[in-house]
Amino acid sequence: MRSVCEIGLKYRILPEGDPLKGLYLRWAVLLSLFGVIGLLGWGRYNREVRAQEPKALLKISSGSDLRVIGRIEGGSLVRGSEGKPFEFTLSGEGEQVSVNFMGEDQDTLRELKTIVVIGSWDGENRHFKAKEIALIPNYDFITWAYLTSLIPLAFFIFRMERKVALLYIMIKEEKAYQRENLS
Amino acid sequence: MLSTRFIGWLRRYEKWFGIAAVILMVIGLYTGLVTSSADYYQGEVVRIMYVHVPFAQTAMFAYSTLFFCSIWYLWKRDPIVDNAAHAAAGIALFFTAGGLLTGSIWGKPTWNTWWTWDPRLTSFAILFLTLVGYLMLRTFLDDKEKRATFGAILAIIGFIDLPIVHFSVEWWRSLHQPLSVSTRGVSIAADMALPLSLMSIGFTLLFTYMLMVRTQMLYLEYLLEAKQGRLMSEERL
Amino acid sequence: MQFFSVIRWIAWKDLLSEYRNRENISSMFFFAINVILIFSFSFSLDPETIKEIMPGIIWVAFGFTAIIGLGKSFLVEVNNDCMEYFQMLPIPKGAIYLGKFLGNFLFMLSVEIVLFPLFVLFFNLDILDQFLKLLLISTVATIGLSALGTLFSALTVQIRAREVMFPILLLPLSVPIFIGAVEATRGILSGDAFALYRHWIELLVVFDVIFVVVSFWIFEFILDY
User: Fold this and answer.
1) B76 CB within 8 Å of a chain C CB
2) Which residues in C lie closer than 8 A to residue B167 (C-beta atoms)?
3) A4, A150, B70, B197: which has the fewest C-beta neighbours closer than 10 Å?
4) What average pLDDT score do residues B73-77 get?
């Protein structure tokens, strides 16, 4: 079913109307505003969330505050106790790194589980000293959730506003309007 | 004409709701995506909450609006109220679909499944189907008043049905298997509550704005149709 | 008194005309037999599996029968131009609804009672001693189905895509009926104590009461057009 608006558009040339110009301007401002937030979110992801594979880690000699993602190798986990650190091998992309972690026992610390370790790297001894352990970030899910909800929302509202603007123009142009006033 | 005055009123005040909604959503998105911390159990994925929960809330709010507009229409028979109900139904369908989609995306990393027969999920799926039925019923009816009345009746019946669906699924689930994946019990830290409440209020305002715009749109469509129809019949004479 | 005689006569008229031309009942009946046959071909007949899937099969058959039967409920009135007479009756319009509802309910229930022996026959069910309980569940579930079905039949009867719209409207809203009926039937077939599935029957009764009352009140608005 074709809407009234489309039929009207076909037979009528729209004037260089203010309502439409204002609409596009407003939406340009809005989109850039939300784009800035998106960029800020992306920056935060790069800064605080993104983790590297052990392979990339092996290339640097040393560093602190690194985030490494990998799987705890089966059979490699030695549980720590009072004052003794956890020790395990983190693997990914065929490379392995031995890690020790000083801290509390956590649910996430299990064999064959993929985790993110945060800490400092000693390239000479190929040893990673973790001070913190985090879950897999799953950032692609977050990105998809936001994109699949907010973009259609914006599109939905934009189409609605545009149609209202068009309808006002068309109703103003409709000749029947004067007739109604006369009779 | 009451409806012309009402449309003028909508046109005058709609922008304030839109502006307020945008301001709240910008701050909410900034705090939600950039400054707030990750959840202890769910990790970063918890950020989906800031878009999923407002979507779901708005869907319920829109359906409540549809319900009250329907009752009001059956009572007063004001065509503009029917336009508002129709507008609310379209918006509710959109937000229900969005809520289901974001919920599904959230469910995969946290519960390791895209779908589960949770009472809330099931009620939302039923809500979705009811709204699709509502909009379809309206497109199949030609007479304007009949369309409004039958739609209102369906909306009222569907609204009454929702809590029963919710309870029945809750009983059904609790009987068969324990709710291994509960949607409840997510305690909210202070820096998560801020973006969540900002987004919720922002979406409520946004819904009000959308309702105002869409009511206008449907009313103007009818108006234009009526005018074009009159023009055509006069030409034929 | 006129109120109740309208209810009685409309229900009586529907049942009588159905008895005389057997149009609806035969299509419903053969559809249900089809469903039963296909399911009995496709599942092995060992008793444990049967107990697990039987409630589903029974209510799939009944649900589709309801769609076939209830959807046409008001068609005969429209075809014979009876809607105008209904509008002119000087009584609360809810009485017409209750009459149609009662007719549909009795009609559906009789089809279901005829179908039960076929389930016993084809699936080797041992439910003869539980028959009264099954009848109770069928009754409360069928009340709910006919209440919604009668209302939606009146809503959809005058539109073009009647056959499409009726199930689209009926099926989502009758989800609680099907959940309740399937669960209660499962309870019976696996021989549970009555207390274990009593709450399902209560849920169905609540559903019935709400929807009969709401439909009774709201039917007036449908007939106005």
Assistant:
1) no
2) 176, 203
3) B197
4) 90
